[in-house]
Amino acid sequence: MLVSNVFSLIGDTPLLEIGIPVPNDSKIFAKLEFLNPGGSVKDRLGMSLIEAAIKRGDIDDKTTIIEPTAGNTGIGVALAAVKYQLTTILVVPEQFSIEKQMLMKALGAKIIHTPHELGMKGAIVKSKELAAEIKNAYVPNQFYNLDNPAAYEKTLGKEILKDLATQKIDAFVAGVGSGGTFVGTVKPLLKQYPKLKTVVVQPEGSILDNKPAHAHKTEGIGVEMVPPFFKDVRIDEIKTISDKDAFSYVALAAKKLGLFIGSSSGAALAASLKLAKTLPRKSNIVTIFPDSSERYLSKGIYKN
Ligand code: PMP
């Protein structure tokens, strides 16, 4: 395959049928989003946030992009900023993985840390402060920007329908950080399959089960507030997965499937297998593997 730039390789990732026994003779299919050039599902978002803003005239070639991010969105935004040669500042709470931060820097972005204890909220506040100080700044703000779910509605959701054109889809399972991946992807699926079971995955310590927030090791998912995008779709079930379960499926995926998946993918796999026990026989479950374990090696992802 001959390509003229790496940006054209974003999206159209493979959908893998998971080759381990699934309860009730069902099947689990996972979109291998770590195969995007920047290594995660958030390449789709980074490119889309920048291109939508350029189209609206919110960005010109002198604009500084400022974004609060746990890391993967930062890499996606920084990758898009390379394409359009834009200055980028990423505001990252300090607990997140060093590999992601190294990759953001390699792409030319500047990183500003906010204190761990202030969480993503602290990064959002700091981004707004910086934007007020810097002339011609643009904060995409993935947590509120409708370009976020729209990116996934246009690409990931439609791709899944195409990938499984010859098979029905009974359930969609995905982790939630901003909620953009879940909400955007599920919309076209619900249009084609109105009875689709929609299942959100969160780590223990995320607030969607109305329990108090606490720290967790599963990275990239978990929320401190209900994502504003949730009001746009029907959510049937919330599956809360412990760090222990998420990391045990990360280990299993490597040993049994030869897959290097991150902990949010491990949680998605754990949740999909749990869900399969409750669905009718021969159900088809679709999920997302957002990134790779390679970005968490320094955090001991295989030592848990
Ligand atoms: N998994 C990983 C590894 C992520 O980085 C993210 C984004 N923070 C997600 C899942 C969740 O994606 P979204 O923000 O679209 O809910």
UniProtKB/TrEMBL annotation:
The UniProt record lists the keyword Ion transport: no
GO biological process per UniProt: cysteine biosynthetic process from serine
Residue ranges annotated for the Tryptophan synthase beta chain-like PALP domain, each copy included: 8-291
Catalysed reactions listed for this entry: O-acetyl-L-serine + hydrogen sulfide = L-cysteine + acetate
EC number: 2.5.1.47
SUPFAM superfamilies: Tryptophan synthase beta subunit-like PLP-dependent enzymes (SSF53686)
CDD domains in the record: CBS_like
Pathway terms, separated by semicolons: Amino-acid biosynthesis; L-cysteine biosynthesis; L-cysteine from L-serine: step 2/2
Keywords: Amino-acid biosynthesis, Cysteine biosynthesis, Pyridoxal phosphate, Transferase
Gene3D superfamilies given in the database record: 3.40.50.1100
GO molecular-function term, one example from the UniProt record: cysteine synthase activity
Keyword check for Amino-acid biosynthesis: yes
Cofactor: pyridoxal 5'-phosphate
Assigned protein family: Belongs to the cysteine synthase/cystathionine beta-synthase family.
Name of this chain's protein: cysteine synthase
UniProt source species: Ligilactobacillus ubinensis
